[in-house]
Structure formats: C-alpha cells, structure tokens
Amino acid sequence: MPTPPRVRFDASLWQLPSSAAQGQARARMPALDFGVQRWRPASLQHQQDGRIHLLSGQTMGTHWSLRLANPDYLPTEPVQALLERVFDDVIAQMSNWEADSLITRFNRSRPGQTHVVPAEFAHVLEAALHWARLSGAALDPAMGALVSLWGFGPRQNPLQPHSGQAPAGDEIERLLKTSGHGHLRWNAQTRQLQQSGGLELDFCGIAKGFAVDWAVRKLQAAGWAAGMFEIGGELRSWGQRPDGRPWRVQLGTGGSAEAESLVVACREGAFATSGDFWHQFTQAGRRYSHTLDPRTGWPVTHDLASVTVFHEECMHADALATVLTVLGPQQGMDFAREHEIAAVLTSHLASDGNEARRQVLKTPAWINQFEA
C-alpha cells in the first residue's frame, strides 16, 4: 500500500455547546466518578475487569467512549478534560456546522482571500488529497457545495428531517464545474489556502477519524499505555488489556446477521465504517444515500450496504471507508486488493439475490490480518 501522509460522510451536528446547554447537560447527567465507582463491582461488572475504566459523552453530533487501562486507579478527570479540549479544537477548525469555524470561514470567504491554516487542518487536507488523487476522486474534500445542495450539509435546524427532494440536474452540473480538489489553491509548504470563488471544503469523511487519532496521541503522550477510544463507531486501540489480552472489537456492517459475529482482536490500529444506513431519503420510490460520488455529483447507486476498513490510523481508515463505498463492490474490492487495504464489504443482497441475506466480502489483507 502506498504510504499516506501520517496524520463517512455524514451530517453530524458539529457545534460547540453553549454554556447554558452545558449546564443543563450536567444537571441531567451526573459526572462519572471512577474514584468512587471503582469500589463498586456491580457498576463495572460489564467490563469484567475493574482495572479498565469507561468514560463516555457526546461530541460532533454523536457519542464517544473510552475504555482506559487504569491498573493504578488514577483519577480520570484530567482525561475527560483532555478529550474535551481535543473535541473543541477539531470542531473549531473542521466543523461545517459551526458558524465561526475555520472551514466555515474559508467556505464563506471572498474570491482570492488567503488563509494560513493550522498544522492539524493541513494534516487532514493533505491526507484527503492523497486519497483523492489515488482513487480518481472517489473521495474529494472540496465538494461541500454539492453536499449542501443535496441537503446533507449544515442547515438552520439540524434536527429537522431532510426535505426529501433531489436537486435539479442543471444545478448539480453547475456546481460540478466549480467544485472539486482540482480547483483548490493550496500551498502545503506555507499552509496557505486561497479561495478560488465559491469553493467549499467538507471534511466529514475524514475529520472524525482524525479526532480519534489526535485524542489517542494526546492520551499516549500523557502516559496512558493502553486503551480503546471511539467516536460514533470510528475506533482506535493501543496497547493491551491489563490481563495481557488484546482488545476485542465487535464491528457492525448495517445490521446483517453476519455483522453480529464479526468480532476481531486488535492490539494496535483503527477501524472505520461507512454505510448507506445513515442519513438518506426516498423520493418517488428511489432511495438516495447520503454518500455522494464526487465524480458525478449524485448519490451512489450500487449495492454496497457498508464498508469497514482497518488501518494503522483512524483518519485513513475513515477516508478509505468512504473511498471504497463510493467505488462500489467490484471497483472497491479491486482498489482494496491493489493497495492492500484490510476491509470488509457488505452488500444488500447475497450473490444469489436473496434479500434476507447479505453478501460479506473480505479482502486478502483483512483475512491475513485477522483470520490467518
């Protein structure tokens, strides 16, 4: 596999909570206090090891959870604070849903205006461009205008259901002419990004995975030797459990029976899943997935229900899950084989056309990693 730079499309609500909302949340949910709960076996019996402490919360329109190997029963309040700083930093830089985020300011800036972006933003952009070039634009970070046109981008009331209307074809064609990474004016050396005119970035297919990586690196730097961290199903583990066993991960691939038994052991690495079971609508009997094909400007129409990818870094797993989803079952499998990507591709129908079963295909790299 070509070495990517070290660093799913969804309509997550990436907004910083107001102080009032934070106060209300605290009132509704008492803060976790592992300093007390560790002495109550019943409260941790589901973990089967009191040396593994569980923290959880909400961010980016979804839930996060951390299983942390803590054999010395150290206080976890600093861990919670560290994670919240990471979430706030990622949202402030990369959330299209935050009105004053860096990415929103770029998207709304006038033609010719130049922005010098932080290292983390540049890191994510470079990784997205890497896979855009390698996949023939199956992933493209500069298609935000089309995402919004289809109603899967930021909107005034994020909780309101999708309008259920597909945009006009001529509008799609118009935006295709001004969207895409080919129109991006980007200097990686100086980290300067210039607005070409109406170009909109969207990192929703990669930024959540980056947030997982960034949080794990911060935890490792703080001295935590092992854990498993996830945001909305994008997951990364490091080290091993206190009993010496690897972490075990149960992976979901769209609710199929096969997915229920897809459990793997992992000491180091990350998983990400992309699928058409999130954020979709139906019009005139046709189902429109939230996953757009940047090459056509239309939602994907093939038979893939979901893709799960394993990679050393969650950001790349996140991006590759989107790439393979857009490419579809055959081209996606070919791309995964060519670049030695460990992935599981699940189709809506089995090979015999039986709707009651789903076809689950595993790449050679997946089989070698988890089943050899």
UniProtKB/TrEMBL annotation:
<dbReference type="InterPro" id="IPR003374">
    <property type="entry name" value="ApbE-like_sf"/>
</dbReference>
<dbReference type="GO" id="GO:0046872">
    <property type="term" value="F:metal ion binding"/>
</dbReference>
<dbReference type="InterPro" id="IPR024932">
    <property type="entry name" value="ApbE"/>
</dbReference>
<keyword id="KW-0449">Lipoprotein</keyword>
<feature type="binding site">
    <location>
        <position position="205"/>
    </location>
    <ligand>
        <name>Mg(2+)</name>
    </ligand>
</feature>
<dbReference type="GO" id="GO:0016740">
    <property type="term" value="F:transferase activity"/>
</dbReference>
<keyword id="KW-0460">Magnesium</keyword>
<keyword id="KW-0808">Transferase</keyword>
<protein>
    <recommendedName>
        <fullName>FAD:protein FMN transferase</fullName>
        <ecNumber>2.7.1.180</ecNumber>
    </recommendedName>
</protein>
<feature type="binding site">
    <location>
        <position position="322"/>
    </location>
    <ligand>
        <name>Mg(2+)</name>
    </ligand>
</feature>
<keyword id="KW-0274">FAD</keyword>
<keyword id="KW-0479">Metal-binding</keyword>
<keyword id="KW-0285">Flavoprotein</keyword>
<feature type="binding site">
    <location>
        <position position="318"/>
    </location>
    <ligand>
        <name>Mg(2+)</name>
    </ligand>
</feature>
<dbReference type="Pfam" id="PF02424">
    <property type="entry name" value="ApbE"/>
</dbReference>
<comment type="similarity">
    <text>Belongs to the ApbE family.</text>
</comment>
